[in-house]
Protein backbone atom coordinates (compact mmCIF):
# COMPACT_ATOMS: atom_id res chain seq x y z
CA UNK A 1 0.00 0.00 0.00
CA UNK A 2 2.85 2.35 0.90
CA UNK A 3 4.57 1.54 -2.41
CA UNK A 4 1.43 2.41 -4.37
CA UNK A 5 1.01 5.68 -2.45
CA UNK A 6 4.64 6.62 -3.01
CA UNK A 7 4.43 5.75 -6.70
CA UNK A 8 1.22 7.75 -7.02
CA UNK A 9 2.77 10.75 -5.29
CA UNK A 10 5.82 10.54 -7.55
CA UNK A 11 3.62 10.39 -10.63
CA UNK A 12 1.54 13.37 -9.49
CA UNK A 13 4.70 15.31 -8.64
CA UNK A 14 6.20 14.48 -12.04
CA UNK A 15 3.04 15.59 -13.85
CA UNK A 16 2.89 18.81 -11.80
CA UNK A 17 6.53 19.55 -12.54
CA UNK A 18 6.04 18.85 -16.23
CA UNK A 19 2.98 21.13 -16.28
CA UNK A 20 4.98 23.85 -14.47
CA UNK A 21 7.80 23.57 -17.02
CA UNK A 22 5.26 23.65 -19.83
CA UNK A 23 3.68 26.79 -18.42
CA UNK A 24 7.07 28.48 -18.09
CA UNK A 25 7.93 27.54 -21.67
CA UNK A 26 4.58 28.76 -22.98
CA UNK A 27 5.13 32.12 -21.29
CA UNK A 28 8.71 32.55 -22.58
CA UNK A 29 9.28 35.61 -24.74
CA UNK A 30 9.01 35.18 -28.50
CA UNK A 31 9.68 37.57 -31.38
CA UNK A 32 7.19 35.76 -33.61
CA UNK A 33 4.78 38.21 -35.24
CA UNK A 34 6.13 41.00 -33.04
CA UNK A 35 6.31 44.57 -34.33
CA UNK A 36 8.93 46.89 -32.84
CA UNK A 37 7.43 50.35 -32.34
CA UNK A 38 10.10 53.04 -32.05
CA UNK A 39 9.60 56.33 -30.16
CA UNK A 40 12.27 59.02 -30.54
CA UNK A 41 13.36 62.28 -28.94
CA UNK A 42 16.30 63.96 -30.67
CA UNK A 43 18.22 67.22 -30.43
CA UNK A 44 17.78 69.72 -33.26
CA UNK A 45 14.51 68.15 -34.40
CA UNK A 46 10.81 68.33 -33.53
CA UNK A 47 10.87 64.72 -32.36
CA UNK A 48 9.60 64.54 -28.77
CA UNK A 49 8.47 61.06 -27.70
CA UNK A 50 7.40 60.74 -31.34
CA UNK A 51 6.53 57.43 -32.97
CA UNK A 52 9.14 57.14 -35.73
CA UNK A 53 9.07 53.52 -36.91
CA UNK A 54 7.31 50.16 -36.95
CA UNK A 55 9.77 47.36 -37.65
CA UNK A 56 9.84 43.55 -37.99
CA UNK A 57 12.32 40.97 -36.75
CA UNK A 58 14.39 38.98 -39.24
CA UNK A 59 17.16 36.39 -38.87
CA UNK A 60 20.58 37.42 -37.57
CA UNK A 61 22.24 34.29 -36.26
CA UNK A 62 25.72 35.71 -35.71
CA UNK A 63 26.34 39.47 -35.55
CA UNK A 64 29.71 40.73 -36.74
CA UNK A 65 32.08 42.79 -34.62
CA UNK A 66 31.54 45.64 -37.07
CA UNK A 67 27.82 45.68 -36.37
CA UNK A 68 26.55 47.86 -33.53
CA UNK A 69 24.09 45.78 -31.50
CA UNK A 70 21.86 45.92 -28.46
CA UNK A 71 21.42 42.40 -27.09
CA UNK A 72 18.28 41.79 -25.02
CA UNK A 73 17.69 38.52 -23.19
CA UNK A 74 14.12 38.47 -21.76
CA UNK A 75 14.78 35.19 -19.92
CA UNK A 76 17.25 36.92 -17.58
CA UNK A 77 15.16 38.90 -15.12
CA UNK A 78 16.18 41.14 -12.25
CA UNK A 79 14.44 43.66 -9.95
CA UNK A 80 10.72 44.47 -9.99
CA UNK A 81 9.88 48.00 -11.12
CA UNK A 82 8.03 50.23 -8.64
CA UNK A 83 7.59 53.39 -10.69
CA UNK A 84 8.90 56.84 -11.65
CA UNK A 85 7.77 60.23 -10.42
CA UNK A 86 8.72 63.54 -8.85
CA UNK A 87 8.35 65.65 -5.74
CA UNK A 88 5.34 67.80 -4.97
CA UNK A 89 6.95 70.49 -2.84
CA UNK A 90 5.46 73.73 -1.51
CA UNK A 91 7.13 75.49 -4.43
CA UNK A 92 5.52 73.19 -7.01
CA UNK A 93 2.11 73.58 -5.41
CA UNK A 94 2.34 77.37 -5.16
CA UNK A 95 3.32 77.71 -8.82
CA UNK A 96 0.57 75.27 -9.85
CA UNK A 97 -2.02 77.43 -8.05
CA UNK A 98 -1.01 80.40 -10.25
CA UNK A 99 -1.64 78.54 -13.52
CA UNK A 100 -4.86 78.95 -15.44
CA UNK A 101 -7.42 76.14 -15.01
CA UNK A 102 -6.68 75.07 -18.58
CA UNK A 103 -2.94 74.86 -17.96
CA UNK A 104 -3.48 73.09 -14.65
CA UNK A 105 -5.40 70.39 -16.51
CA UNK A 106 -2.69 70.17 -19.18
CA UNK A 107 0.02 69.97 -16.53
CA UNK A 108 -1.64 67.14 -14.61
CA UNK A 109 -2.23 65.14 -17.78
CA UNK A 110 1.34 65.80 -18.95
CA UNK A 111 2.78 64.14 -15.87
CA UNK A 112 0.24 61.64 -14.59
CA UNK A 113 -1.75 60.40 -17.58
CA UNK A 114 -0.14 57.38 -19.27
CA UNK A 115 -1.71 58.05 -22.69
CA UNK A 116 -1.66 61.86 -22.91
CA UNK A 117 1.45 62.28 -20.75
CA UNK A 118 4.33 60.32 -19.27
CA UNK A 119 2.58 58.32 -16.57
CA UNK A 120 4.17 59.36 -13.27
CA UNK A 121 3.24 57.00 -10.42
CA UNK A 122 5.51 58.09 -7.54
CA UNK A 123 5.12 61.22 -5.41
CA UNK A 124 7.61 62.49 -2.84
CA UNK A 125 6.69 65.34 -0.52
CA UNK A 126 8.32 67.32 2.26
CA UNK A 127 7.38 67.00 5.94
CA UNK A 128 6.99 70.69 6.86
CA UNK A 129 9.37 73.16 5.19
CA UNK A 130 12.36 72.59 2.94
CA UNK A 131 14.33 75.05 0.79
CA UNK A 132 11.61 74.83 -1.88
CA UNK A 133 9.09 76.49 0.44
CA UNK A 134 8.35 80.21 0.59
CA UNK A 135 9.53 80.23 4.21
CA UNK A 136 10.37 77.97 7.17
CA UNK A 137 7.49 76.42 9.07
CA UNK A 138 6.57 73.38 11.19
CA UNK A 139 3.31 71.75 12.24
CA UNK A 140 3.71 72.55 15.95
CA UNK A 141 4.16 75.57 18.16
CA UNK A 142 7.74 76.25 19.29
CA UNK A 143 8.63 74.16 22.33
CA UNK A 144 5.65 71.79 22.08
CA UNK A 145 7.44 68.52 22.86
CA UNK A 146 4.14 66.70 23.41
CA UNK A 147 2.95 67.77 19.92
CA UNK A 148 -0.45 68.85 21.26
CA UNK A 149 -0.55 71.73 18.74
CA UNK A 150 0.23 69.50 15.72
CA UNK A 151 -1.69 70.77 12.70
CA UNK A 152 -1.14 70.47 8.95
CA UNK A 153 -3.31 73.50 8.10
CA UNK A 154 -0.36 75.05 6.21
CA UNK A 155 -0.36 72.19 3.68
CA UNK A 156 -4.10 72.41 3.05
CA UNK A 157 -3.75 75.67 1.14
CA UNK A 158 -1.59 74.52 -1.76
CA UNK A 159 0.25 71.22 -1.31
CA UNK A 160 -2.52 68.83 -0.28
CA UNK A 161 -4.92 70.00 -3.04
CA UNK A 162 -2.22 69.39 -5.68
CA UNK A 163 -1.31 65.98 -4.26
CA UNK A 164 -4.98 64.97 -4.41
CA UNK A 165 -5.27 66.17 -8.02
CA UNK A 166 -2.08 64.31 -8.96
CA UNK A 167 -3.31 61.06 -7.43
CA UNK A 168 -6.64 61.42 -9.26
CA UNK A 169 -4.84 62.15 -12.55
CA UNK A 170 -2.74 59.01 -12.00
CA UNK A 171 -5.93 56.94 -11.91
CA UNK A 172 -6.36 57.04 -8.15
CA UNK A 173 -3.16 55.14 -7.52
CA UNK A 174 0.21 56.62 -6.62
CA UNK A 175 3.08 55.65 -4.37
CA UNK A 176 3.55 58.60 -1.99
CA UNK A 177 6.40 58.92 0.46
CA UNK A 178 7.50 61.82 2.66
CA UNK A 179 10.85 63.21 3.83
CA UNK A 180 11.78 65.70 6.56
CA UNK A 181 14.54 68.28 6.01
CA UNK A 182 14.87 69.23 9.69
CA UNK A 183 13.12 68.71 13.03
CA UNK A 184 11.66 71.85 14.62
CA UNK A 185 14.33 74.25 15.91
CA UNK A 186 13.62 73.55 19.60
CA UNK A 187 14.47 69.86 19.10
CA UNK A 188 18.01 70.61 17.80
CA UNK A 189 21.29 71.47 19.45
CA UNK A 190 21.58 74.62 17.30
CA UNK A 191 17.99 75.81 17.96
CA UNK A 192 17.85 76.49 14.21
CA UNK A 193 16.12 74.55 11.43
CA UNK A 194 18.69 75.82 8.92
CA UNK A 195 22.42 75.14 8.55
CA UNK A 196 22.67 71.60 9.91
CA UNK A 197 22.70 70.89 13.62
CA UNK A 198 21.62 67.67 15.31
CA UNK A 199 18.50 66.23 16.88
CA UNK A 200 18.92 66.26 20.66
CA UNK A 201 18.59 62.81 22.28
CA UNK A 202 15.86 64.03 24.64
CA UNK A 203 13.67 64.71 21.60
CA UNK A 204 14.19 61.36 19.80
CA UNK A 205 10.81 60.02 20.94
CA UNK A 206 8.99 63.27 20.28
CA UNK A 207 10.44 63.41 16.76
CA UNK A 208 9.44 59.78 16.11
CA UNK A 209 5.91 60.67 17.24
CA UNK A 210 5.97 63.57 14.74
CA UNK A 211 6.18 61.12 11.79
CA UNK A 212 3.16 59.25 13.16
CA UNK A 213 1.19 62.50 13.48
CA UNK A 214 2.14 63.46 9.92
CA UNK A 215 1.12 60.12 8.41
CA UNK A 216 -2.17 59.99 10.30
CA UNK A 217 -2.99 63.60 9.40
CA UNK A 218 -2.36 63.05 5.69
CA UNK A 219 -4.29 59.80 5.64
CA UNK A 220 -7.19 61.54 7.38
CA UNK A 221 -7.17 63.90 4.37
CA UNK A 222 -7.58 60.89 2.09
CA UNK A 223 -3.92 60.73 1.02
CA UNK A 224 -2.42 57.24 1.51
CA UNK A 225 1.19 57.44 2.72
CA UNK A 226 3.18 54.49 1.36
CA UNK A 227 6.42 55.25 3.18
CA UNK A 228 9.02 57.74 4.34
CA UNK A 229 12.71 58.50 4.44
CA UNK A 230 14.25 59.23 7.82
CA UNK A 231 16.12 62.40 6.86
CA UNK A 232 16.85 64.26 3.64
CA UNK A 233 20.61 64.46 3.05
CA UNK A 234 21.74 63.60 6.60
CA UNK A 235 25.41 64.45 5.97
CA UNK A 236 24.93 67.94 4.47
CA UNK A 237 25.04 71.19 6.44
CA UNK A 238 22.92 73.20 4.02
CA UNK A 239 22.02 76.91 4.18
CA UNK A 240 18.42 75.70 4.23
CA UNK A 241 16.59 73.21 6.48
CA UNK A 242 19.01 70.40 7.29
CA UNK A 243 19.97 68.02 10.08
CA UNK A 244 23.06 65.83 10.50
CA UNK A 245 22.94 62.15 11.42
CA UNK A 246 26.01 59.93 11.42
CA UNK A 247 25.35 56.39 10.20
CA UNK A 248 25.26 55.18 13.82
CA UNK A 249 22.85 57.95 14.84
CA UNK A 250 20.45 57.18 11.98
CA UNK A 251 20.67 53.44 12.78
CA UNK A 252 19.96 53.96 16.49
CA UNK A 253 17.12 56.44 15.92
CA UNK A 254 15.52 53.92 13.55
CA UNK A 255 15.85 50.80 15.69
CA UNK A 256 15.18 52.37 19.10
CA UNK A 257 12.58 55.01 18.25
CA UNK A 258 11.15 55.41 14.75
CA UNK A 259 10.69 51.72 13.85
CA UNK A 260 9.07 50.68 17.16
CA UNK A 261 6.96 53.87 17.29
CA UNK A 262 5.48 53.31 13.82
CA UNK A 263 4.79 49.67 14.65
CA UNK A 264 3.12 50.55 17.96
CA UNK A 265 0.94 53.12 16.14
CA UNK A 266 -0.27 50.47 13.69
CA UNK A 267 1.90 51.90 10.90
CA UNK A 268 4.39 49.06 10.70
CA UNK A 269 3.49 48.54 7.03
CA UNK A 270 4.94 51.91 6.03
CA UNK A 271 8.11 51.50 3.96
CA UNK A 272 11.16 53.08 5.62
CA UNK A 273 14.01 54.20 3.38
CA UNK A 274 17.38 55.09 4.90
CA UNK A 275 20.20 57.41 3.77
CA UNK A 276 18.38 59.59 1.18
CA UNK A 277 21.64 61.26 0.15
CA UNK A 278 24.33 60.92 -2.52
CA UNK A 279 25.91 57.78 -3.98
CA UNK A 280 29.32 58.63 -2.47
CA UNK A 281 28.72 57.36 1.09
CA UNK A 282 25.98 54.92 0.08
CA UNK A 283 27.93 51.74 0.92
CA UNK A 284 29.08 52.95 4.34
CA UNK A 285 25.59 54.06 5.39
CA UNK A 286 23.99 50.85 4.12
CA UNK A 287 26.55 48.64 5.88
CA UNK A 288 26.27 50.43 9.22
CA UNK A 289 22.48 50.21 9.32
CA UNK A 290 21.80 46.92 7.58
CA UNK A 291 24.48 44.91 9.39
CA UNK A 292 22.55 45.57 12.60
CA UNK A 293 19.65 43.05 12.67
CA UNK A 294 17.62 45.23 15.06
CA UNK A 295 17.73 48.12 12.56
CA UNK A 296 17.68 46.00 9.40
CA UNK A 297 14.22 44.59 10.13
CA UNK A 298 12.65 48.04 9.78
CA UNK A 299 14.36 48.94 6.48
CA UNK A 300 12.52 48.62 3.15
CA UNK A 301 15.28 50.22 1.13
CA UNK A 302 18.16 52.63 0.65
CA UNK A 303 17.55 55.98 -1.05
CA UNK A 304 20.10 58.02 -2.97
CA UNK A 305 20.60 61.32 -4.84
CA UNK A 306 22.91 62.23 -7.73
CA UNK A 307 24.81 65.28 -6.43
CA UNK A 308 28.05 63.49 -5.49
CA UNK A 309 29.79 65.20 -8.42
CA UNK A 310 29.88 68.41 -6.28
CA UNK A 311 33.43 67.32 -5.36
CA UNK A 312 34.57 67.61 -8.97
CA UNK A 313 34.56 63.87 -9.65
CA UNK A 314 32.26 61.75 -11.80
CA UNK A 315 28.91 60.28 -10.80
CA UNK A 316 29.45 57.10 -8.77
CA UNK A 317 26.88 54.95 -10.54
CA UNK A 318 28.71 51.72 -9.68
CA UNK A 319 28.23 52.31 -5.94
CA UNK A 320 24.54 51.55 -6.39
CA UNK A 321 25.35 48.17 -7.96
CA UNK A 322 27.85 47.35 -5.23
CA UNK A 323 25.29 48.01 -2.50
CA UNK A 324 22.78 45.89 -4.43
CA UNK A 325 25.35 43.05 -4.45
CA UNK A 326 25.83 43.36 -0.69
CA UNK A 327 22.13 43.57 0.22
CA UNK A 328 20.09 42.02 -2.62
CA UNK A 329 17.05 41.68 -0.34
CA UNK A 330 16.79 45.47 0.13
CA UNK A 331 15.34 47.91 -2.41
CA UNK A 332 17.26 50.77 -4.00
CA UNK A 333 15.35 53.99 -4.70
CA UNK A 334 16.54 57.14 -6.42
CA UNK A 335 14.92 59.77 -4.17
CA UNK A 336 16.11 63.08 -5.65
CA UNK A 337 17.91 64.70 -8.54
CA UNK A 338 17.67 68.00 -10.40
CA UNK A 339 19.82 70.28 -12.52
CA UNK A 340 21.14 72.93 -10.16
CA UNK A 341 21.87 76.67 -10.62
CA UNK A 342 18.90 77.87 -12.62
CA UNK A 343 19.63 79.94 -15.73
CA UNK A 344 16.70 80.84 -18.00
CA UNK A 345 19.03 80.70 -21.01
CA UNK A 346 19.55 76.99 -20.36
CA UNK A 347 15.91 75.91 -20.18
CA UNK A 348 16.32 73.97 -23.43
CA UNK A 349 19.91 72.81 -22.82
CA UNK A 350 20.01 69.27 -24.22
CA UNK A 351 22.72 68.12 -21.81
CA UNK A 352 20.26 68.56 -18.94
CA UNK A 353 18.00 65.91 -20.45
CA UNK A 354 20.94 63.62 -21.22
CA UNK A 355 21.95 63.81 -17.56
CA UNK A 356 18.58 62.27 -16.71
CA UNK A 357 18.83 59.58 -19.38
CA UNK A 358 22.34 58.55 -18.38
CA UNK A 359 21.50 58.41 -14.67
CA UNK A 360 18.27 56.47 -15.15
CA UNK A 361 19.89 53.85 -17.37
CA UNK A 362 22.79 53.35 -14.96
CA UNK A 363 20.58 53.33 -11.87
CA UNK A 364 18.12 50.80 -13.26
CA UNK A 365 20.93 48.57 -14.52
CA UNK A 366 22.41 48.67 -11.01
CA UNK A 367 19.23 47.38 -9.37
CA UNK A 368 17.14 50.49 -8.67
CA UNK A 369 13.39 49.80 -8.38
CA UNK A 370 12.01 53.37 -8.39
CA UNK A 371 13.22 56.77 -9.58
CA UNK A 372 12.03 60.09 -8.14
CA UNK A 373 12.87 63.46 -9.69
CA UNK A 374 12.92 66.60 -7.53
CA UNK A 375 10.33 69.41 -8.05
CA UNK A 376 7.68 68.59 -10.65
CA UNK A 377 7.14 72.31 -11.30
CA UNK A 378 8.99 75.58 -10.65
CA UNK A 379 8.42 79.14 -11.82
CA UNK A 380 10.25 81.23 -14.45
CA UNK A 381 13.06 81.88 -11.93
CA UNK A 382 13.56 78.30 -10.76
CA UNK A 383 11.70 78.88 -7.50
CA UNK A 384 10.16 79.87 -5.19
CA UNK A 385 13.00 79.02 -2.80
CA UNK A 386 13.38 80.87 0.48
CA UNK A 387 17.20 80.68 0.51
CA UNK A 388 17.79 81.42 -3.18
CA UNK A 389 18.72 77.84 -4.19
CA UNK A 390 17.04 78.15 -7.59
CA UNK A 391 17.03 75.03 -9.80
CA UNK A 392 15.55 73.49 -12.93
CA UNK A 393 12.50 71.23 -13.09
CA UNK A 394 11.26 69.22 -16.11
CA UNK A 395 8.37 71.67 -16.52
CA UNK A 396 8.43 75.37 -15.60
CA UNK A 397 5.37 77.56 -15.27
CA UNK A 398 5.78 81.22 -16.21
CA UNK A 399 3.66 82.99 -13.60
CA UNK A 400 3.65 86.19 -15.67
CA UNK A 401 2.50 84.76 -18.99
CA UNK A 402 0.86 81.54 -17.79
CA UNK A 403 2.98 79.53 -20.25
CA UNK A 404 4.08 75.98 -19.51
CA UNK A 405 7.68 75.35 -20.56
CA UNK A 406 8.64 71.73 -21.25
CA UNK A 407 12.37 71.10 -20.99
CA UNK A 408 14.36 68.22 -22.55
CA UNK A 409 14.43 66.53 -19.12
CA UNK A 410 10.66 65.98 -19.27
CA UNK A 411 10.95 64.00 -22.50
CA UNK A 412 13.99 61.99 -21.39
CA UNK A 413 12.18 60.89 -18.22
CA UNK A 414 9.11 60.10 -20.33
CA UNK A 415 11.04 57.57 -22.40
CA UNK A 416 11.05 55.41 -19.25
CA UNK A 417 7.95 56.39 -17.26
CA UNK A 418 5.47 56.32 -20.15
CA UNK A 419 6.31 52.77 -21.23
CA UNK A 420 7.55 50.76 -18.24
CA UNK A 421 4.62 49.50 -16.17
CA UNK A 422 4.39 48.89 -12.44
CA UNK A 423 5.69 45.42 -11.50
CA UNK A 424 7.63 45.09 -14.76
CA UNK A 425 10.83 43.06 -14.47
CA UNK A 426 14.14 44.46 -15.64
CA UNK A 427 15.71 42.12 -18.19
CA UNK A 428 19.22 41.82 -19.56
CA UNK A 429 20.14 44.57 -22.04
CA UNK A 430 23.70 45.00 -23.31
CA UNK A 431 25.25 47.27 -25.94
CA UNK A 432 28.10 45.85 -28.03
CA UNK A 433 29.86 49.22 -28.25
CA UNK A 434 30.23 52.26 -25.99
CA UNK A 435 28.34 54.53 -28.41
CA UNK A 436 24.99 53.41 -27.02
CA UNK A 437 23.56 53.06 -23.52
CA UNK A 438 20.62 50.76 -22.86
CA UNK A 439 18.26 49.22 -20.32
CA UNK A 440 15.24 46.96 -20.80
CA UNK A 441 12.12 45.82 -18.94
CA UNK A 442 9.44 43.19 -19.50
CA UNK A 443 5.95 44.43 -18.70
CA UNK A 444 3.30 42.21 -17.16
CA UNK A 445 1.35 42.23 -20.44
CA UNK A 446 4.28 40.43 -22.08
CA UNK A 447 5.61 43.43 -24.00
CA UNK A 448 9.28 44.29 -23.77
CA UNK A 449 10.51 47.88 -23.44
CA UNK A 450 14.07 48.77 -24.43
CA UNK A 451 15.51 52.25 -23.97
CA UNK A 452 18.51 53.20 -26.11
CA UNK A 453 20.45 56.45 -25.80
CA UNK A 454 22.99 57.94 -28.22
CA UNK A 455 25.14 60.68 -26.67
CA UNK A 456 27.43 60.93 -29.70
CA UNK A 457 27.42 63.52 -32.49
CA UNK A 458 26.85 60.75 -35.07
CA UNK A 459 23.77 59.19 -36.58
CA UNK A 460 24.09 55.48 -35.83
CA UNK A 461 22.60 52.24 -37.11
CA UNK A 462 22.19 49.36 -34.67
CA UNK A 463 20.53 45.96 -34.42
CA UNK A 464 18.09 45.11 -31.66
CA UNK A 465 18.92 41.44 -31.12
CA UNK A 466 16.76 38.82 -29.34
CA UNK A 467 18.40 35.42 -29.70
CA UNK A 468 18.88 34.81 -33.44
CA UNK A 469 16.34 37.47 -34.44
CA UNK A 470 17.05 41.17 -34.98
CA UNK A 471 15.73 44.38 -36.43
CA UNK A 472 17.85 47.25 -37.73
CA UNK A 473 17.19 50.72 -36.28
CA UNK A 474 18.56 54.19 -37.01
CA UNK A 475 19.17 56.61 -34.14
CA UNK A 476 19.95 60.30 -34.60
CA UNK A 477 22.79 62.13 -32.81
CA UNK A 478 22.02 63.07 -29.19
CA UNK A 479 18.81 61.06 -29.22
CA UNK A 480 16.96 58.70 -26.92
CA UNK A 481 14.64 55.97 -28.16
CA UNK A 482 12.13 53.61 -26.58
CA UNK A 483 11.44 50.37 -28.41
CA UNK A 484 8.21 48.55 -27.53
CA UNK A 485 7.74 44.99 -28.85
Question: What's a concise summary of this model?
Answer:
Keywords: Glycosidase, Hydrolase, Signal. With 485 residues, the chain is α/β, with parallel strands linked by helices.
Overview of the molecule:
One of its GO terms (molecular function) is glucosylceramidase activity. Residues 1-18 form the signal peptide. Residues 424-483 form the Glycosyl hydrolase family 30 beta sandwich domain. By secondary structure, the protein is α/β, with parallel strands linked by helices. The chain folds into 2 domains: 35-79 and 427-484, Golgi alpha-mannosidase II (Immunoglobulin-like, Sandwich), CATH 2.60.40.1180; 83-421, Alpha-Beta Barrel (TIM Barrel), CATH 3.20.20.80. The chain is built from 12 helices and 21 strands. The chain has helices spanning 2-26, 90-97, 101-112, 153-157, 159-169, 204-220, 247-264, 282-290, 293-296, 317-326, 350-365, 408-417, and strands at 35-42, 50-56, 58-59, 69-80, 83-87, 122-127, 175-180, 227-229, 271-278, 299-305, 331-336, 368-375, 377-379, 395-397, 404-406, 425-431, 436-442, 448-454, 460-466, 469-475, 479-484. The strands form 3 sheets. The chain has a 10-stranded mixed beta sheet, with helices on one face. An 8-stranded parallel beta barrel has the order 5-6-7-8-9-10-11-12, surrounded by 5 helices. Strand 8, helix 7 and strand 9 (271-278) form a beta-alpha-beta unit. Helix 2 (90-97) packs across helix 5 (159-169) and helix 11 (350-365) runs parallel beside helix 12 (408-417). The termini are far apart. The model is unreliable at 1-26 (pLDDT under 50).
